[in-house]
TrEMBL record:
It comes from the Bacteria. It comes from Oceanivirga miroungae. It holds the Pfam family Creatinase_N. Residues 140-343 form the Peptidase M24 domain. Belongs to the peptidase M24B family. Keywords: Hydrolase, Manganese, Metal-binding. Residues 4-131 form the Creatinase N-terminal domain. This is Peptidase M24.
Length: 354
């Protein structure tokens, strides 16, 4: 209940009646119940003295089994008004906090009507502040997710052969991960060969692997609700000289940025370290994205590892470091690792050879 109590402290401090949480990842974080409600309403109502959750009827038994907090569980059928059914349990909620970065205008209007709301504030930043520090249990789950991503990269290496297509190898990776470990990928796996990798988030297609190509793999795996995100670029035979040069620059940028991870350093400084290396080699215009992003219950979450933030690294934050160079017609290289900030430095979760 510690997490719930932190929300309650926020309510007291800000003179609010309740928080209505509707983002599934936040509900999982607070209750241990995880589901995809699709277009249906899933809502956790936190009041100063009570706790209730609304779930679609089809999720009721699953919620009962998974919940790790005591609350009043309310279910509704697709033919029922879930908003009204929830209000019947909680009563009116005049002053509420919601996740403005998630709740739709339509839902807010319906909640405002059913609960007689007169005042709305956002609790999004408060929950982000809670989630940005990973507990020991969360870090263990992220380690296991990273270990599984390493296994997926090894499967990719094992199946590199001349003539295989991007989409074939992508399918092998995802099938073998399900077969061996019964896990799901945390996002659509990216497999790109040769010059195709110069499109950072290109779509795997019918391009065949040839001798001398670089093969880029960007993938991740879910483990108990927590995601990994790893990228490796692998030589298949001897690459062209400029492609090999680009690879070595990106590898150096990745490793130098990681070396500077410790509490008190700014995210913008890490971005600058990697970007300066790439710019000094004449490839600055081809590094066209931020250095990294937060990782946890979502593949992309706080923090933003870029020049746009002055935020400082703190112990138990988890994020990626993924510099890249994408020169059209020549090569695309990205190397991505998952990093935990420790008391005195860092821990790299992704272990696959670079």
């Amino acid at each position: 209940m510690d997490k719930i109590n932190k929300i309650r402290e926020y309510l007291v401090k800000n003179n609010l009646d309740s928080a209505i949480i509707t983002k599934p990842t936040n509900i999982y974080y607070l209750t241990n119940f995880n589901c995809d409600p699709h277009e249906r309403l899933l809502a956790l109502v936190i009041k100063k003295d009570s706790l209730a959750m609304l779930v679609p009827a089809m999720e009721y038994e699953s919620a009962k089994a998974k919940l790790k907090v005591e609350l009043e569980l309310v279910s509704y059928l697709d033919t029922e008004n879930g908003f009204r059914k929830l209000q019947n349990k909680t009563g009116n909620l005049e002053k509420i906090a919601i996740e403005k970065d998630y709740m739709t205008v339509d839902w807010l209007e319906r909640i405002s009507f059913e609960f007689n709301v007169s005042h709305v504030e956002s609790i999004s930043s408060h929950i982000i502040d809670m989630r940005k520090y990973k507990s020991n249990d969360e870090i263990e789950k992220l380690k296991k997710a990273a270990n599984l991503a390493d296994e997926a990269i090894l499967i990719a290496r094992e199946n590199l052969k001349e003539g295989i297509t991007e989409i074939e190898l992508k399918s092998i990776i995802e099938f073998e991960m399900k077969k061996r470990y019964a896990v799901n990928m945390s996002f659509d796996t990216i497999v790109l060969f040769g010059k195709n990798a110069a499109n950072p988030h290109g779509e795997s297609g019918e391009t065949k692997l040839r001798k001398g190509d670089l093969a880029l793999f960007d993938l991740g795996v879910w483990y108990e609700g927590y995601a990994s995100d790893e990228t490796r670029t692998i030589f298949f035979g001897t690459p062209e000289k400029e492609a090999e040069k680009i690879y070595e620059i990106v590898k150096r940028a990745n490793e130098e940025a990681i070396k500077h991870v410790k509490p008190g350093v700014s995210f913008s400084y890490l971005d600058k370290i990697a970007r300066d290396i790439i710019e000094k080699e004449g490839y600055g215009e081809y590094f066209n994205h931020r250095l990294g992003h937060g990782l946890g219950l979502e593949v992309h979450e706080y923090p933003d590892v870029s020049s746009a933030t002055s935020d400082l690294l703190e112990e138990n934050m988890v994020f990626t470091i993924e510099p890249g160079i994408y020169k059209p017609g020549i090569a695309g290289v990205r190397i991505e690792d998952d990093i935990v900030v420790t008391k005195d430095g860092y821990m790299v979760l992704t272990k696959t050879e670079k």
